[in-house]
Write a structure and sequence with these properties.
Layout: E1 8-10, H1 27-38, H2 47-53, H3 58-70, E2 74-82, E3 88-96, H4 103-111, H5 126-132, H6 134-137, H7 145-160, H8 165-173, H9 183-193, E4 205-209, E5 216-217, H10 245-268
Parallel strand pairs: 1-3
Antiparallel strand pairs: 2-3, 2-4, 4-5
Length: 269
């Protein structure tokens, strides 16, 4: 596994796994893709680490990963993540998808517009299970199966707004009146009157990088995951890539130094 927060990241909305997912790839690339597909998120899929696990050298693995990128199964880049203390930092990402994606899909994914996976709904939802167990925390709030089914969508609304199970339990059980005449009515009232506000949507901050040279760029300038220079095109065909914060700071320092030297020269004359 890679360091926490790094390593493989699976993209959303993939098709179910089959025995023919990578049949369109050459044998070596298909074998490597099948291996990556079965690794959990967070696994270290760097060339150096893969060379210790697979019967290929680092050069062969590097070439194979670039071909997986050109086939739409892989993208490398960076993403801005927010820590628990509110601070933000850019970290390296390697996104993998079993279902090959075209350049338009990767462009939408970089903006945060890619479709989310469709998952089967469990027989008893997380909200239903919380309500069914509510009587263990507060016996006066014991609910019937019918009450749980009726109130579960209200709890689901809390979860959708970022509330944890502890948040819901605290809202339902703190400061209870004595006695509780109608548990279901009290729970309904608290779930609706104390519903937290919806979170402000924040699109992800992602930057893709060229598979060959690592130069950052907008998704539309990296078809197949490669920049125009690495594709053998003229550099003018590619819009300039965004500068990183350290590059901006260095350039500003150079400009300030040049202005200072010019003032010194004028003063001396």
């Amino acid at each position: 596994m890679a360091n926490p927060g790094y390593g493989k990241r699976t993209t959303p909305g993939q098709s179910p796994r089959t025995n023919h997912d990578f049949g369109h790839l050459p044998p070596r690339e298909a074998a490597i893709a099948a291996y990556l597909d079965r690794l959990p998120d967070g696994a270290d899929i760097s060339v150096k680490t893969l060379a210790k696990q697979l019967p290929y050298g680092q050069c062969a693995l590097g070439t194979a990963l670039n071909r997986l990128q050109q086939a739409g199964h892989l993208r490398r880049g960076r993403e801005c993540v927010t820590a628990g203390d509110g601070s933000s930092r850019w970290i390296t990402r390697t996104w993998f998808t079993r279902t090959a994606r075209d350049d338009d899909w990767w462009t939408a994914f970089t903006r945060g517009d890619a479709p989310r996976p469709q998952t089967a709904r469990p027989t008893r939802s997380r909200a239903h299970i919380l309500l069914a167990a509510l009587g263990r925390t507060a016996p006066v709030l014991s609910l019937s199966e019918r009450d749980c089914a009726t109130l579960a969508p209200l709890v689901t609304d809390w979860f959708a707004r970022g509330a944890s199970e502890e948040d819901v339990l605290r809202a339902l059980t703190s400061g209870l009146p004595t006695p509780v005449h109608h548990a279901a009515a009290l729970v309904h009232n608290r779930l609706t009157s104390k519903l937290p506000p919806p979170p402000t949507p924040r699109p992800p901050l992602r930057v893709l990088e060229c598979a060959n040279c690592g130069a950052p760029g907008r998704p539309e300038t990296l078809p197949g995951g490669r920049c125009s220079a690495c594709r053998g095109e003229r550099a003018s065909a590619q819009p300039p890539a965004p500068l990183s914060a350290p590059m901006i700071h260095d350039r500003a320092a150079e400009i300030r130094t040049a202005m200072f030297q010019r003032r010194q020269e004028k003063a001396s004359t």
